[in-house]
């Protein structure tokens, strides 16, 4: 296992972090075994959030007694001071700890959310930090260019962002901005939420980039073993070039998953756009296949929705002006086995 100094925090963390968002989906015993196996085999970064159902409680029950063996990160998505303060206290109780190493102001994607967070949740985080309940403060979001702007104030110790074969966009603005400030850098969703394969290539791509740790969602001992095994070797120059080219090929959708868009018939546009290229090139992991099976009829009905015939409603809200309707309809054609024509 590779270990790195976590930016200006000065803490050493494992390059592979344990993402605990999906632990509530499996039996407690399975989650407990996975967490303990991870600690036993060198993973020292554990990531959760107050909004991940009972994930914090699972961590507290499973490894609370091993608290001195890992760096613990959680998040608040509240915006007001009072609600954030209450959520921080609740997280500490659930995690069975007196402090968290990192509290992240979570899922900040618009200027309005940022202003509200700085006036409310950030103030609560600083107060908790002064009381010894929080060691470091971070921010997370899905808009890398906005995160690059927001961290420039120097008020955050860490930043959490997407970085994967299908979403390499943080490389342009965000990572260089964090480097200038010696900030801790955490990459999330190397498999894009369980959609992307080949798994080993996806993990090794994120591992090869200029980040301190990457969070991979794991729910079993076997998944922990698979993740650790994928990162046993360092990435050499030739492989790095191949992975960079693969990322260029798989990210042509240009979707950041900022979720500004919405579909009147319920198509999950970011998932459709991001998964579409991988689906056609490699096929998808079971979670991705299940997504398309569940949403198949909605995707197929996109072309027939009359209010979007002339001006797609979804595209009016996209800050990147992406051709969402075309991508969805190309995906529909792929699902039905026909060529797309416009």
Explained architecture:
The protein folds into 2 domains: 3-236, TIM Barrel, CATH 3.20.20.100; 269-336, no CATH class. The chain starts with a strand and ends in a 6-residue tail after the last helix. Helix content is 42%, strand content 14%. Helix 2 links the parallel strand 4 (45-47) and strand 5. The chain is globular, with a radius of gyration of 20 Å. The longest helix is centred in the first third of the chain and has 15 residues, at 81-95. By secondary structure, the protein is α/β, with parallel strands linked by helices.
Short account of what is shown:
By secondary structure, the protein is an alpha/beta fold. The chain contains 13 helices and ten strands. It folds into two domains: 3-236, TIM Barrel, CATH 3.20.20; 269-336, no CATH class.
